[in-house]
Amino acid sequence: LRHRLAVASAVAAVASAGWLYLRHQKEQQQRARRLRHLRELSLGQGDFELRDTSGTPRRKADLLGRWVLLYFGFTHCPDVCPEELQKLSRAVELLERDPALPPVQPVFVTVDPERDDEAALARYLRDFHPRLLGLTGTPEQVREAAAKFRVYVSAGPRDADGDYVVDHSVLTFLLDPDGILRDCYGRSRTAEELARSVRAHMDTYEAL
């Protein structure tokens, strides 16, 4: 009887181990399919070519290997863009408090290249996170970059002084080290919520 029980227990253990192995394999395959799907459908998947505040050409490919929080806006924005950049900067600072976490690169892409040249961006970004990377380019380059992220951009009419506002999508995008869009955040999200979300994505991240 004891022998039969031992054999039955051994068989059950083997069956259980086999089931766990198959389950693990299935989960890995599902995760791989999901990541391939994200790569195929991800917003912002295409590359772009812009310039930083020193005039150095920058591509999306240059950001690979780092987590990125990216926001499209313009320096003449009266309130929304400053608020969003303050929030983005605060979220990065919260994440920097944990030295075990990989660094996050904050990025600001202008949607108003006519007024936001390298010098204007450099002056404007001094008020935010010291590592905030500002990017500009020709109107065509900026339009292409915005389109890659499906960001809506529309310049309004000019006033008597030639001034105008630019209507645009208010979203902050999170890219993982593979350049895949992992999340996007609207105005209602707080800096603390952004930081928690980024940390959660870091905890579950598996490189492609």
TrEMBL record:
<comment type="similarity">
    <text>Belongs to the SCO1/2 family.</text>
</comment>
<feature type="domain" description="Thioredoxin">
    <location>
        <begin position="39"/>
        <end position="203"/>
    </location>
</feature>
<keyword id="KW-0479">Metal-binding</keyword>
<keyword id="KW-0186">Copper</keyword>
<feature type="binding site">
    <location>
        <position position="81"/>
    </location>
    <ligand>
        <name>Cu cation</name>
    </ligand>
</feature>
<dbReference type="InterPro" id="IPR013766">
    <property type="entry name" value="Thioredoxin_domain"/>
</dbReference>
<dbReference type="Pfam" id="PF02630">
    <property type="entry name" value="SCO1-SenC"/>
</dbReference>
<feature type="binding site">
    <location>
        <position position="168"/>
    </location>
    <ligand>
        <name>Cu cation</name>
    </ligand>
</feature>
<dbReference type="InterPro" id="IPR003782">
    <property type="entry name" value="SCO1/SenC"/>
</dbReference>
<keyword id="KW-1015">Disulfide bond</keyword>
<dbReference type="GO" id="GO:0005743">
    <property type="term" value="C:mitochondrial inner membrane"/>
</dbReference>
<dbReference type="GO" id="GO:0046872">
    <property type="term" value="F:metal ion binding"/>
</dbReference>
<protein>
    <submittedName>
        <fullName>SCO2 protein</fullName>
    </submittedName>
</protein>
<dbReference type="GO" id="GO:0033617">
    <property type="term" value="P:mitochondrial respiratory chain complex IV assembly"/>
</dbReference>
<feature type="disulfide bond" description="Redox-active">
    <location>
        <begin position="77"/>
        <end position="81"/>
    </location>
</feature>
<feature type="binding site">
    <location>
        <position position="77"/>
    </location>
    <ligand>
        <name>Cu cation</name>
    </ligand>
</feature>
<dbReference type="InterPro" id="IPR036249">
    <property type="entry name" value="Thioredoxin-like_sf"/>
</dbReference>
